[in-house]
Design brief:
534 residues, alpha/beta, seven-stranded mixed beta sheet, seven-stranded antiparallel beta sheet
Length: 534
């Protein structure tokens, strides 16, 4: 096996990995290898924003993971899609740009992660950003990542929702990523000129043509190579078979919250007991690897509308489909440019709370979620989720072969506080839709339906129908305590020259969609790595 040498090897070209590849190679001093298990991002549905409905069920660009049976969800298995293409999950997600709350990051600092407070991280959010509205104290302009408004300005379902929510005392908020997150409004998304702005488009686009950056696709990692306790390279499967790459400085894992811990374990870093069962030689005993997995869980409330104003209606009419395509080609507007959720908000389920604990996402369409096909009737979906779940799960390798999918057990609702929060969220979401402002457009509640009345009924509905929001985090958490696998510099404790930089490092999930935070982690990690090289 021939061995190439690089200064840095980045495993995973996802939300953080593409950022790292760009920033580490930018000044030309360092030779960088970026390994991606999937292929190039050439599928047209990656780039058309509405195409996420296609990519979420396409195994060519999606790992299509599935959890183990979840006890509190009636032993259902829950799909856990992850991007398997340049850009990773930023190439297949719902495109929402949400940073979370100031308190999320201040809590990371308080948990022993020095340098990770909101004040520390805001410059990294701003550095990435090319905000359509221009720069201000909260936003950046001119960065590689486009952040844009809802292109159509308004939508009748969204307007009715916002009128109902504000009528109930929820504040209108034009910027969930500004001074405060609380309130309801339209979402912004990672879109530029009607096209998805993934991290591949944004960051690797900057790096094209650099002689010091090698990007290998269809090149899944097999294991990290150690000499003693030092990571010195990666073995991966290339076009011509198994290949070796050696890292003169560091190996950085950006394979995500599902596969970064799995790759560590099959390489000998993890629970000694687990690795012994797998027959993997132990490099370092780190029982925290793969633990602390958590994710957002959502319940989906579906309502039939009185008029044909939903995407369901557009996609069932050939003339309306043709109009949609024409509108997109001529003006880069219309349904093909929409994010997964066009409006929503962050609200408190109890006025005694100091900050929002519930997220609303309003989708101008409806489906059964397990099937990408939209319903044949006019309907929209309002999802509700608990922003800060207490339940913790795990993800662990079940074979020394990295090609074998790991065991994912998120333990959704395995905490009384999560059950209470979801119950409150469903009630609050229904209250908004059942208000007079929305009843003008709503014909009936399709799901959970009018027979769902008591708390027991609602919880039965949640256990039978709730799905994750595809925000897995925390499985390689950073922290000052002995149980944390990483330190605040994202270095894997107990070994040398090895870091993790992706959503797995979060000690606690941020209050909202996680893509913006994963990009920020890539930005900060690049700075820390380059500083260490000085």
């Amino acid at each position: 096996m021939a061995t190439e040498e690089f200064d840095y090897i980045v495993v995973g070209a996802g939300s953080a990995g593409c950022v790292l590849a760009d920033r580490l190679s930018a000044d030309g001093r360092h030779r960088v290898l970026l390994l991606e298990a999937g292929g190039r991002d050439r599928n047209i549905w990656i780039h058309v924003p509405l195409g996420y409905g296609k990519t979420m069920f396409n195994r060519d660009v999606n790992w299509m993971f599935e959890t183990q049976e979840v006890p509190a969800l009636n032993n259902r298995r829950v799909k856990q899609p992850r991007g398997r293409v340049l850009g990773g999950t930023s190439s297949i997600n719902g495109l929402l740009y949400v940073r979370g709350q100031r308190e999320d990051y201040d809590e990371w600092r308080d948990l022993g992660c020095s340098g990770w407070s909101y004040a520390d991280l805001l410059p990294y959010f701003k550095r990435s950003e090319d905000q359509q509205r221009g720069a201000d104290p909260w936003h950046g302009a001119g960065g590689p990542l486009a952040v844009s408004d809802f292109p159509d300005g308004t939508h009748p379902i969204a307007e009715a929702f916002l009128a109902a929510a504000t009528g109930m005392g929820m504040p209108r908020n034009p910027d969930f990523n500004g001074a405060v997150q609380e309130g309801v409004g339209y979402y912004q998304g990672t879109v530029r000129n009607g096209l998805r702005c993934s991290t591949s488009t944004a960051f690797l686009g900057n790096a094209k043509g650099r002689g010091n950056l090698a990007v290998r696709t269809r090149a899944p990692a097999r294991r990290i190579v150690f000499e003693g306790k030092r990571a010195v390279g990666v073995t991966y499967r290339g076009a011509d078979g198994i290949a070796n790459a050696r890292a003169r400085r560091e190996v950085i894992l950006s394979a995500g919250a599902i596969q970064s811990p799995q790759l560590l374990e099959v390489s000998g870093v993890g629970s000694g007991e687990l690795l012994a069962r797998l027959g993997v030689p132990l490099v370092h005993d780190s029982p925290g690897i793969g633990e602390n997995l958590h994710d957002h869980l959502q319940s989906r409330l579906i309502y039939r509308t009185r008029d044909k104003i939903t995407l369901n209606d557009v996609l069932q009419s050939y003339p309306r489909q043709a109009g949609m395509v024409l509108h997109y080609l001529l003006a880069r507007k219309g349904p093909l440019t929409w994010l997964a959720a066009i409006a929503g908000g962050f609200v408190r389920s109890d006025s005694a709370l100091t900050r929002p604990d519930i997220q609303f996402q309003l989708y101008p369409y409806s489906s059964d979620r397990v099937d990408p096909k939209l319903h044949p009737f006019s309907a929209f979906t309002l999802t509700v989720c608990n922003l800060r779940p207490e339940a913790r799960g795990s993800v662990h390798a079940i074979s020394p072969d990295f090609d074998v999918a790991p065991a994912i057990q998120p333990n959704y609702l395995d905490h009384p506080a999560d059950v209470a929060s979801m119950l409150a969220a469903v009630k609050l979401g229904r209250a908004v839709v059942h208000s007079s402002a929305m009843q003008a457009i709503v014909e009936s509640e399709q799901t959970p339906g009018p027979d769902c009345k008591s708390d027991q009924d609602i919880l039965a509905f949640v256990r039978d129908k709730a799905f994750c929001v595809y925000h897995p985090v925390g499985s390689c958490r950073m922290g000052a305590d002995a149980a944390a696998p990483l330190d605040a510099e994202l270095r894997v404790k107990g070994v040398e020259a090895l870091r993790v930089a992706d959503a797995s490092v979060m000690p606690r999930i941020c209050s909202g969609n996680t893509n913006a935070a994963a990009i920020m982690i890539g930005e900060k990690a690049a700075d820390m790595i380059l500083k260490a090289a000085e």
